[in-house]
Queue: 2 jobs
Job 1
Amino acid sequence: MCGIVGYVGNGSASEILLNGLKRLEYRGYDSSGLAVLADGKLELRRSVGKISNLSLNIKNRPLNGHIGVGHTRWATHGIPSEENAHPHTDCSKRIVVVHNGIIENYSSLKAVLIKKAHQFVSQTDTEIIAHLIEESWELKQKNSNGKKSEEDFLHAVRHALLQCDGAYALGILCMDFPELLVAARKDCPLVLGLGKKENFIASDIPALLGLSKKVIFLDQEEIAVIKKNSIDCFNLQGKKVEKKSVKVKLDPVQAEKANFKHFMLKEIMEQPRTIQDTLRGRVFPEKNRLQLELNLSAAFIKGLKRITLVACGTSYHAALVGRFWLESLAKVPCQVEIASEYRYRDHFFSSQELVIFISQSGETADTLAALRLTHRFPVKTLAICNVLGSSLTQEADTTFYTRCGPEIGVASTKAFTGQLIALLLLAIHLGIIKKHLNLKTIHQILADLLNLPHWVREALTLSNEIEKISKRFLSKNHFLFLGRHTNYPIALEGALKLKEISYIHAEGYPAGEMKHGPIALIDKEMPLVALVTDSLVYEKICSNIEEAKARGGTVIAIASKGNKTIQEKADEVLYVEKVPEIFSSIVNVIPLQLFAYHMADLKGCDVDQPRNLAKSVTVE
Ligand code: M6R
């Protein structure tokens, strides 16, 4: 989720890298840094906050040189600070690394390196890469009597990377090779930009705009050896691979959106990857185990008597889904509260309770105020948050990060699915510790969890079909979204998405409540969107659809693949994968996000910045 730029050529590295980083800044990074190699020395500058802080830092202490790497950080391990900002170095300060991604096994690698007397100065996972390379590089030199060959250095890099589990896009420099820039990738994008007597690397094409018109996309587990006049690529076994360059034709704004029309669409489409990132390094089906970085002792979890979930907007909907999981998997009584209401109520807590605050931004005023009022009580607090170092994470006792990367569109999409995954992981974790889940169930749920990115990817293929359906319903001014059980909150979320970006009136309802009032609204001008995937309440919601049809209602159904009978009841059917019921909310929200998106886009609305709304609601 970070941004990487690298340069080798005859120009001013610091100037070129700074400009590249500025082009990535729209994502709202929290710190940045550069390393430039000149006169046999590596020099670093790092700053917290905006790139302008780094520019000022470099203006005060200029960096001269023609080869360097730069990075904008969106923190995942360690708060935004100068020590945690990239580039990171080894003990001898001869090697620098910039990194995008997460090294899952960093704590075990770090423990081994510390035993070998390596000194660490940051809390990041990235720093271990510099030390791993150092370790292998020193060994290589020892074995070749101090001879420094480029081949041996590349071997050391490969050896280091083969020890890393997880995802990476990397830019690496070593003082021993003043004309060599090394890049590598696995599960994170990295492009190589081609120039005249100069070459570049970047995590994202926008960083290269105006610098390079031809790029090479580095593939999985490939390493590139970049000099000003050449680029050579290898696989992790050291075998040379031939690469083709492609022309890039993008205007800057378009490039930032990775060719999607809007950030919201980009973020919807990113979900298979962001879900994978939320799960990364946390789920081990083969060991029937989860590894969550939570500061909640087993004794506390075993004695837990009640959980309260507090949030606003979309995060509140995630909390409503989370309640089902916490009650059914962990058997803990739960209550869900809207922060702006909760903060003005009377509270009664015991030390055997947990209050969970859910917020994408971690800066929502009402959620923060609700957290602050708990400080007067002996109660444990947990933040589920996407932004590392945000106020909520600083003030809660412990935090679980959703790791979805910056969300630019005001309408929350990928952060919502990240929150759902976080809550599900938490519920399983509590269920395991409280011994409410048997080994077979744990194994099955954990194995299924790893299928989620695939199921979500399949749901995303509905986009064109949803666009067609949206055209048919474009003239409607009111929609009713119906769901039951874990899909009731998804109905609320579908309605919220539609109203906030398309300005169409929409209500989310628990389908069983229809006959208690809303059914009076049904006519041919009030279409229904019904979540009727296979579940415990499938028959019940089918009856609710029949009731609506009998009153002239038009129905768009979200159903499980293979269900033919639903076609007789609904006017339009969108089929998603048939998934175990506990995962259905995560899959079913995807067509609703796409429906809201296409309706808003077809209406010509400002999808990414809807009227009257702000991304972080920092006022009451
Ligand atoms: O940053 P938070 O998750 O605390 O934000 C809460 C709401 O403001 C937010 O979810 C809002 O409802 C979104 N615009 C929904 O798309």
Job 2
Amino acid sequence: MTTRRDFLIGAGAGLVTLGLGRVQASSHPVSREVAEDGGQYRLQGPFVVSTWSHGVPANAAAWEILDSAGSALDAVETGVRVPEGDPDIISVGYGGRPDRDGHVTLDACIMDHEGNAGSVAFLEGIKHPISVARLVMEKTPHVMLVGAGAQRFAVDNGFEVENLLTPAAEKEWRCWLEKASYDPWPDPADPNAAHDTIGMLAVDTAGNMCGACTTSGLPFKMHGRVGDSPIIGAAMFVDNEVGGACATGLGEEVMKTLGSFLIVELMRQGLSPAEACHEAIARIVRRNADWKEVQVGYLAADKQGRCAAFSILPGFQFAVTDREGTRLLDARSWAHPEAAAGG
Ligand code: ASP
């Protein structure tokens, strides 16, 4: 086995290869790795990072743009459109699990390197909310459109209204209806089952960072519930002078602590991405006696290419892609004994 130092200089190491889980096909070599020494990684040149294993194909789409000197904004939009359009990914876009009334309602946000932002929330019938969020940023004087107004704006700009409830998601919902217990807490047997938002950060060859986040939110949420994903500074924030952060997990906790903004501000004050993610998780843990039942994961990267992720419970994964290829990595967690060391 090689050392983490080897990995940092590009040899793929300090790492144990464990297998690929739910990873889909990618044009890049993928390895699932466990980092030593605080779980912080060094990426080279342009890069893209994103949450969960569906980040692997999403990163591949984003990387095609970055690798041909495209913009980070195009990269993050194109990247997260992959899970949005995949009916087998039950937590984002088309195929997402519905709310308790059977409606698939989507939240998304995007930020560019100049601090411009756009978002949509409680949007129904539009397969690619991230592209609507980008149009809100680029074509309106506003940052956020919600519900029917967001849908009308999308239709006015050429988007098609489609039924996003797939037979598989409808079946799951009908099964849930048998008990109809509204419980946003994760299943203790699989704390990550309810959480699969994609957040993505990319740096292009010009050195600019942009970010995106998109989700169908908590499964079987109350009708009208909006999570952290469209809230700028909660589930995603980018400051091109410093870096960016994105979140997944129980959105209510992320919103109450404005986690992504917090992480970026902590990095501005000199904390590493690993230390900043650790502190943002600590803020949630400290205010929740029942933190063992809550999953939140943060992923952060700074402009120097340092990248880290940290979650409350184990199981959170993130995908990183640069010229060395794509790696699917296990985040450290608060609940894991090694986690307390932070970065
Ligand atoms: N953060 C998302 C939300 O609360 C869900 C998730 O990532 O699991 O809507």
